[in-house]
Amino acid sequence: MANSTKPSPDDDKANSTAFARLRSTLRLLYHGQSPKAQRFQAAVLVVDLSIIAFFVAAPLLRDSESFLWIDYSIAALLAADLVARALASTDVRRWLKQLPVIIDIFILATLLAPTWLLNLGFLRVLRLWTLTRSGAIWRPLRKRGFGGYQETIQAVINLLVFLFVVTGFVYTAFAHRDAGISGYVDALYFTVATMTTTGFGDITLPGTFGKLVSIIIMIIGISLFVRLAQLIFRPAKVVFPCPQCGLTKHDPDAVHCKACGHVLNIPDHGED
């Protein structure tokens, strides 16, 4: 007489219930506003920032004996986070199509195969950009009254991401190739000098390809600097949708909407 190993309907129902409960818990932790969820999101944010610090320092740490151990440990953390976020999403297929998620998956691949994908490892710093696409980093700032600086902070982050991505590319493509770049710091120095159009000329990228890269760095770099300067020096705006026309940004002391003239009643949080 053969023993049946087929799970019973009750077992299937219990497993389904447990899985649904797990997804619900993760959804509350990643997207909730409770004190427990906020502590969890703060912990995830600290881990993310630590990972980004490793990515920035990776070119300098690559020759150390502990590099691979740290690399694979971060890969495990990132994989667990991706799985948890997938379970917390309401539509996994739609979630997988988001650009930040695609970038995170690519970063995970570079962590799992650091030797094979070494030439593109500099793209790991894009993790900083994907982090700013989520609300986890902005919700605490809004609660502390820094919501009006979100665009400025985002502009700074965009500039830093571009700086380190370009530095990694220059280091990978031109180091030790008659460009005067013998290390990561040289590549960083060249990138900053080119972005600011200072152009000291002590380090230049060889050939037509090098000139094209320099032109692209200058154009995009100046654009990012101009954008950041605009956000820093122009008057700060507050987010308050006009009830009549829907214009969302106004001067903090605005009485009427600039678009339609509707009377506004913008709350003053200065005493909070």
Automatic annotation (TrEMBL):
<dbReference type="InterPro" id="IPR003938">
    <property type="entry name" value="K_chnl_volt-dep_EAG/ELK/ERG"/>
</dbReference>
<feature type="transmembrane region" description="Helical">
    <location>
        <begin position="212"/>
        <end position="233"/>
    </location>
</feature>
<dbReference type="InterPro" id="IPR013099">
    <property type="entry name" value="K_chnl_dom"/>
</dbReference>
<feature type="transmembrane region" description="Helical">
    <location>
        <begin position="153"/>
        <end position="174"/>
    </location>
</feature>
<feature type="domain" description="Potassium channel">
    <location>
        <begin position="161"/>
        <end position="232"/>
    </location>
</feature>
<dbReference type="Pfam" id="PF07885">
    <property type="entry name" value="Ion_trans_2"/>
</dbReference>
<dbReference type="InterPro" id="IPR028325">
    <property type="entry name" value="VG_K_chnl"/>
</dbReference>
<dbReference type="GO" id="GO:0001508">
    <property type="term" value="P:action potential"/>
</dbReference>
<dbReference type="GO" id="GO:0005249">
    <property type="term" value="F:voltage-gated potassium channel activity"/>
</dbReference>
<keyword id="KW-0472">Membrane</keyword>
<feature type="transmembrane region" description="Helical">
    <location>
        <begin position="99"/>
        <end position="118"/>
    </location>
</feature>
<feature type="transmembrane region" description="Helical">
    <location>
        <begin position="42"/>
        <end position="61"/>
    </location>
</feature>
<keyword id="KW-0406">Ion transport</keyword>
<keyword id="KW-0813">Transport</keyword>
<keyword id="KW-1133">Transmembrane helix</keyword>
<keyword id="KW-0407">Ion channel</keyword>
<dbReference type="GO" id="GO:0008076">
    <property type="term" value="C:voltage-gated potassium channel complex"/>
</dbReference>
<protein>
    <submittedName>
        <fullName>Voltage-gated potassium channel</fullName>
    </submittedName>
</protein>
<keyword id="KW-0812">Transmembrane</keyword>
<feature type="transmembrane region" description="Helical">
    <location>
        <begin position="67"/>
        <end position="87"/>
    </location>
</feature>
